[in-house]
Design brief:
Elements (H helix, E strand, L loop, with lengths): L12 H6 L1 H31 L3 H25 L3 H6 L1 H22 L2 H26 L5 H32 L4 H35 L16
Helix pairs in contact: 2-6, 2-7, 2-8, 3-6, 5-6, 5-8
Length: 230
Amino acid sequence: EAERIGGSMWAGVRPVVRSPFLSGIAGYVLLMAVMATLVYFTRMQMVADVAEGTDARAALLGSIDMWTQIAVLVLQLTLTGRSIRRFGLGVALAILPLATALGFLGLAIYGSFVLLVLLEAANRAVQRGITRPVREVLFTVVAREDKYKAKAFIDTFVYRAGDVVGAQAEGALGRIGLALGGLVSVVVPLALFWAALALWLGRAHARRVSQAWQRPIGGHGRGGVAHDEA
């Protein structure tokens, strides 16, 4: 029978601060939430610019949601776990940042609702079909206590903190007069850093797996977990 894990909810903070690997996962999730919030506010701004009145805006938002869900379904049918096996965890995690950067670049150049729908659809589909399962795999190489406590902290507090940071950033950029073109100058470098972090996480995960299998059986090898090597 597995030993019961004690401690408070704040026990998940300590391993995230202590471990570069868990800090990297937290940073990835934070950036993901920030970008999702910026996509949301970009949609609201574009709708407000072209539709007058509550009813017109509601109808346009409903239409965008409908086409976004259709696009999500199509993308999810084509984006499967084969992407992970073919390219590795790091590249799989980097797909979302790169798709976000390309989507914002397209919006800045063309400003069409078709691109907005594709941006939202790509973000939702990649998050659900690739990013979420890959993030779960990352936690398979950490200690059992960290897996549950640190993961809970990252998936709740860190993600919600990203929502707040994204909303505050959008408001600050709006106050200094940055339009969509100016927003891209902030989003793209941030997305490239996000992608680089994804690649680092993939390499760190592979290194931990290799170290766990090389460790002697008596020292928790052959399936054991690495703790603070990365």
